[in-house]
Amino acid sequence: MKPMVLQDTPALAIDNITKEYCQWQRSGTARDIIKNLLHPEKRVVTALDHISLQVKKGEFVAYAGANGAGKSTTIKILSGILMPTEGTVSVLGLNPAKDRIKLMSHIGVLFGQRTELWWDHPVISSFQWKKEVWNIPDSVYKKNLEMVTELLDLSDILKTFTRELSLGQRMRADIAMLLLHSPELIFLDEPTLGLDVLAKQQMIRFLKKINLENKTTVVVTSHDMDDLEEMAQRIILINKGKLAFDGDFDELRNVMGGFYRIVLTTAKEETPLSIPGMRLLKTESGVHEYEFDRNVLEIHKVMGLLSEFPQILDMEIKKAPIEDVVANLYLSWREN
């Protein structure tokens, strides 16, 4: 389908949006049931709290946060399922709430374990149904069907009933169906959830490929930070409905300090070395893992320190795992 957004128009523009929900409070006791009938009690929950951000066309963005942070609420507002309580939203230059039908022909949305595939029909029947209902031109449908069949390895499952697919197969088929109309922007909520290592790698390679080659804008949520770092160039973190971080993964690491890991190998009988400026994390059979802050102890100083220990047989320096960085960040937010 013909792209509808100009090159200099943001794919997403969120301006000071807030989303509030009302929760009715009930205890279940007979006394409170009568009380609630006369004087209903409710609590206002702020899912999103004055968030503003932009996503450029062709970006691959990770959108993350702890459970209940507001990720799914944001995606639902951007796709027109919910309306914000305050603020404005523009998706491909359109208002999702007012122009939802027009917008849906240019975006794709996939929510975790939910599927649009017909449960008691072959996968290809769902694809053909979408072609007819969405009025996808024959040439576009044929080109995209060939692309997703090849890149997502669907040839063996196109004639298989959806109910007979494994989780990994169904996720691949869902992604394929999502792309049949050539969306300019796709929202993916936990696309690698529950997938085995091979299926996960295949999914990540495919998403990176369509982002790079087709310039498809991708916004993905996940609790697996390693997957997000592998996929996205930019990560946005929200905490309790507020924007908490927006940058790349190296910048995120620096938020908690420039922590690196170094793994030293010695003879098995060697005890862990005491190295100034380094914290021992674990040791097993002559393999010792330490952590140090590169902002405090620079790499060339590390090398100088290690040269004083002839018992070191091998060494490896690597960045701190992004899972640990984000876990520590979540913990600091919770404590504050």
Automatic annotation (TrEMBL):
Pfam family, one: ABC_tran
Presence of the UniProt keyword Cell division in the record: no
InterPro entries: AAA+_ATPase (IPR003593), ABC_transporter-like_ATP-bd (IPR003439), ABC_transporter-like_CS (IPR017871), ABC_transporter_ATP-binding (IPR050763), P-loop_NTPase (IPR027417)
GO molecular function: ATP binding; ATP hydrolysis activity
Residues of the ABC transporter domain: 28-265
Keywords, comma-separated and alphabetical: ATP-binding, Nucleotide-binding, Transport
Domain of life: Bacteria
Protein name per its UniProtKB record: ABC-2 type transport system ATP-binding protein
Organism: Lacrimispora xylanisolvens
